[in-house]
Each structure stands twice: as structure tokens, then as C-alpha cells.
Amino acid sequence: MRKPLIAGNWKLNNTIAEASQLAEALKTELGNNTNTDIVIAPVFTALASVTHICASSSIQVAGQNCHCVDSGAFTGEVSAPLLVDAGCSHVILGHSERRQFFGETDNFVNAKTHAAINSGLTAIVCLGETLEQRESGEMFDVITNQLSLALNEITPAQTENLVIAYEPIWAIGTGKTATSEEAAEVHAFIRGLLSGLFNHEVAEATRIIYGGSVKPNNIGALMAEADIDGALVGGASLTASDFIAIVNYPKPLKVVQK
Q1: Which end of the chain has fewer CB atoms < 10 Å from its terminal CB, N or C?
Q2: Which of 95, 97, 187, 225 does the annotation list as catalytic?
């Protein structure tokens, strides 16, 4: 069984003091949770404080991005080794906001994925379609292209440090959520792609998590689906009670289709 992973992407929110307060609240309620992998991703300026708070707990910390080069004349960038040095175990890559607002391409995401994994980080690689692409029937082609390019020359062994996050762009921060059936269809498709890119064993072992307006009231239905292994939570991760409720969702009995 794939262990559930719930990650909170705090995006561009929270001062060091606010991030520390939120991390403390999560640590109090979730710090001893061993049934679910819990990851939180604060802004870069709060990483040192948050990793210090979470060091004695089961909560892990992620960077929200990293550069594809370890060091050099890249003003304003943060590298994978620097995230490791700050205490991170994970990094979020290829988020739709990075693609939309900062022009990140699939090839650039691929270079970052290699850099992250080579530095010992677990790469949470995001992909997803726009509403226009879904409605025009391009969804599966878009997903195929994004995944194959982002994972180019990644080896089966390296996938041990890989998580795929399916985030339909039309559901991010909009309050709209893909139904559990819609999400499950794409997750199953991605697992099939992983089997073709690597092998059946890699496909079965790789966690595929869902992102897109995840809330306490919809996490249970999402997690009941066999191919949904967790969530990448945006706005709801900024409120301790909501994120705690998401992590502590009623555990469904998953039915795997043979």
C-alpha cells in the first residue's frame, strides 16, 4: 500500500512569526502522526524557523521551488542543495502558477527535477490541464506531454524520490474541485503512463496526489479512490484547523479494481 501524503503549499503567505505559529499549531496536533506523510511548504524566508520547529516531529518541510543549477551567478534563485541545507526533504516543482506567471516550461521542470532528486530531495512534480484543454478533448495529450517531458531521463531508481501532483488548473484557488470520479480518471491515466515510461512496479509504488481546492469536506471522497494517494493543499493549509481536519480525514476502505 502507498502511504498517504498530505502536503500544504502556503504559497506567498505568512511572515516568519506567522509561519512559526502555524507550524507550532500543526506540530501540536500532527507531530506524532505516523499514518500519513505530512509536508508543509512555507516561503523561503521562513524555512529555517519552520524546519527548526518541525525537526522533532513527523512533519516534513518542502521548498516551493528550486533552481536547476546548484550555485553560481543566478541572482534571486534558491538551489536544491540550499533547500537541503535549510532542512527541507521535499520541493514542489512545475506548479501551474510557476508555469503561468514565470514562463516555466516542461524542459525546465525536468532540469529542476533532476537537480532536486540528485540532491536527495523528493520532487513533487505538478501537472494539469486548463479548462479549455479539458473541454476541447486535449486533456490526456496535455498530461502525457507534461509527464513525459518532466520525467525525461529520470531512472526507475530515482522515482523513489518522486511524487506526482495532478492539479487541474481550473480548480486551483477557484473553489471548484474535480469530482472524485474526474480526479480518479486522470490519476489512473497517469499511473498507466508511469507504467509505460518505467514499469509496472514503479507505477504501483509512485504516489499520485491531487491538488485543486482541497477542503475538509471533499478530502474523504477523493481519498476513497484507489489511485489518489494524497493531496497538495493550497488555501486550506493556511488555517491550522482545516489542514488538521484534512490530514485526519475519515480513512476509507479503498477498493482496488483488478
Answers
A1: C
A2: 95
Could you tell me the pLDDT band of residue 174, with boundaries at 50, 70 and 90? confident
Is 95 a residue of the active site?
Answer: yes
| DSSP-H helix ranges across 119-218 | 131-135, 139-150, 180-197, 200-205
Flag whether 255 is in a domain.
Answer: no
Please confirm, yes or no, whether 52 is among the known catalytic residues. Answer: no
Residue 246 in grid coordinates: 484534512
- Set of cell numbers at residue 168: 487541474
Instruction: Tell me the average pLDDT across 68-94.
Output: 98
Residue 151 lies in a domain: yes
Place of cell 496536533: 29
Q: What is the pLDDT of residues 14-50, one digit of tens each?
A: 999 999 999 999 999 999 999 999 999 999 999 999 9
Please pick, among 97, 104, 129, 167, the residue that the annotation labels catalytic: 167
Q: What is the pLDDT of residues 127-149, one digit of tens each?
A: 999 989 998 999 999 999 999 99
Q: 6: which strand partners?
A: 38, 231
In a domain, 98, yes or no: yes
CATH of the domain at 35: 3.20.20.70
User: Nearest CA to 197 among 232, 124, 130, 146?
Assistant: 146
What local confidence, expressed as pLDDT, does residue 109 receive? 98
Alpha-helical segments (H) within the chain: 16-30, 47-54, 80-85, 96-102, 106-118, 131-135, 139-150, 180-197, 200-205, 219-223, 240-247
